[in-house]
UniProtKB/TrEMBL annotation:
Keyword hit for Transmembrane helix: no
Record keywords: 4Fe-4S, Iron, Iron-sulfur, Metal-binding, NADP, Oxidoreductase
All residue ranges annotated as the FAD/NAD(P)-binding domain in the record: 148-461
SUPFAM superfamilies attached to this UniProt entry: alpha-helical ferredoxin, Nucleotide-binding domain
Source species taxonomy: Bacteria, Pseudomonadati, Pseudomonadota, Alphaproteobacteria, Acetobacterales
UniProt keyword RNA-binding present: no
Signal sequence region: none
Organism: Komagataeibacter medellinensis (strain NBRC 3288 / BCRC 11682 / LMG 1693 / Kondo 51)
Protein name, per record: Glutamate synthase [NADPH] small subunit
All residue ranges annotated as the Dihydroprymidine dehydrogenase domain in the record: 25-134
Top-level taxon: Bacteria
Molecular-function GO term, any one: metal ion binding
Amino acid sequence: MAERMLKFVSVAQEQPDKRAAEARRNDFNEIYAEFVPAKAEAQASRCSQCGVPFCSVHCPLGNNIPDWLMMTAAGRMEEAYELSSATNTFPEICGRICPQDRLCEGNCVIEEGFESVTIGAVERYITDTAFDNGWVKPVKPVAERDGSVAIIGAGPGGLAAAVQLREQGYQVHVYDRYDRIGGLLMYGIPGFKLEKDIVLRRHKLLVESGIQFHLGKGIGDADGADSIAFSTLRARHDGVLIATGVYRSRDIGGPGAGLGGIVRALDYLTASNRVSLGDKVAQYDNGELNAAGKSVVVIGGGDTAMDCVRTAIRQGAKSVKCLYRRDRANMPGSVREVKNAEEEGVEFVWLAAPQAFEGEGHVTGVRAIRMKLGLPDASGRQSVEPVENSAYTLEADMVVKALGFDPEPLPTLWGQPELEVSRWGTLMVDRKTFMTSLPGVFAAGDIVRGASLVVWAIRDGRDAAAQMHAWLEELTAAQAEVAE
């Protein structure tokens, strides 16, 4: 099979066809077409099959990338899927939204000038092909167990854990305050990066696997019509996994910060995604969370900011600017996303930070000051300093704050003061076992590590499930000894 590989010297890097910017500005469909089989095989054959696969090393899931690239190049697609799904619970999602330019593809060792293998596009192709051919099957445990587990949060971390625990035969119950599964996959990430049919397709498979979902059911300190007390949950199940993610938006102060027209990124993206799903959203209909015809300024430089600026373009904004205090090289968002945004008409205002918001009752402008990069700080990242007498105003009818997310105060909300948190508000866990300060209560994903990537949530969910399984088996064995 080796003769099929190392084709990077003769085959150029090629992504799937990308729709023209003018066309994709008008809808929320994914911007990349599917690979045709011949193209996917050709791109997979570019892999150099290196002895130390840095693509796998820098993948949080440790995906067997060279192996499934080799299978794809040989047209052995069912085997490629088996390899891909062995380490990744949702490869069709990671292939679409992972920042491959910072992870696997960014660490490809193909010689400079030949460009990396298009790993993400091939991963997406493998799993979509598997779904099309019926190779993706519901989980069927070898034997059912009497024990039940509760998972709080139907985002990628919680769902990954649910699959792993269901494979072990546990009765798995997933609780989520939203009416659909997916968390940010459904309501935070726009359709042009991840069409919602992809998430709904996976939901159907999880239900067929026997995972039970309790949607529209939040967790609180007391039982209610649309909530359940955390204490009730612990009493009902043998083990609990907290995988809520982090949803409290970071804010920005300064004069005028309370003006109308200044909105949070998650509120804005959730409204847009709900409208795309056919829901009625009053704040969208009245214009509060709708950028149509407006001069929009998005503050922030991460992937959420990129989602916001590209959403505003599709909603028909008059102009869209992204205000970021560092330069392009220091931007945390995906390089690929920045390029896509620029193609679609977004203007990036580098090295600028907001000082105040102008307007009476409703925002009319953002008072910004120019910044310059200083010396590296303790983390090695360059600090930023304001340039004296450099303030200016950007016109804005709508300002979107995309400054990142912090954890909600779960111990207070759930009436569990003994649930230990870090100084950042994330849950404290034993790093080996994923168990919190409460016996039998585990935690994984962003609620432990802070806002991070979907692929890390999947990794944490899988690892936490393995530790929960080990703990539950020990508990069952101990109970059996007592019974004797």
